[in-house]
Give the backbone structure.
Amino acid sequence: MFRNIIKELKTAGVGMGLTLKHLFATKKRRVMDTVKSDNYFEQQGKGTNTIQYPSQELPVPEVGRYQLFVEIDDCIVCDLCAKVCPVDCIEIDSIKSPDLIGLTSDGSPKRLYAAKFDIDMAKCMYCGLCTIVCPTECITMTSEYDVSVQELDLLTYQFSDMPAEVADEKRRIFEEAQAAKQAAKLAALKKKEEGL
C-alpha cells in the first residue's frame, strides 16, 4: 500500500515537473520560420507551442490557396471561371458591346462589359480551378487568409462597380446596334432579290 502511494507521488512529481518546464518555457517567444529555414525543426521544442496571434503570424506558403482577387480591368468576361467552379460561388453578368471596348494588360481584346462579377467566399472551397482556366490570369489567389467578418453577406466580394443604370444603357446600345445590323442584312437581302 505504501509502495503504491510512493509510486503515485513520483508519477505526479514527474507530471508536475513537465508542466512547470512548459510553464516557464512560454516566457520565451518562439521564432516563426518557414519550413525552408535551416533551424525550423530545432525551433519546434523551444518557447511556447502556440503563436501569439495577431502580433505573431505563421509564414504563408508560396503555393497557399487563400483569398480570391479579380483584376477587373484585365477581365474579358469569358465566364470560364464561373463555369468551372464546382460550388457556383462566382456570379457573372456580362453585357455585349457592339464595338471593341479596349485591351487587357496582355493585349487581349475586350468585347464584353462586366455588369456583375461577384465571388461568394463563404461558398468557395479554395480549389483554385478558377485561377487555372482564366486566359488573361486576372483572377488570382492572394496570401490574405484572415477574413473574419461579422455578417455572412460581407464574404461576397463585388469586383464590378457598374451601376444598374449604366448596365441598362449598355444593353440598350447593344440591342440598337443588333437591330440596325439586322435591318442592314434585310435591306441587303431585299436589294439582292430585286436585282435578280
Q: What stands out?
A: The radius of gyration is 30 Å.
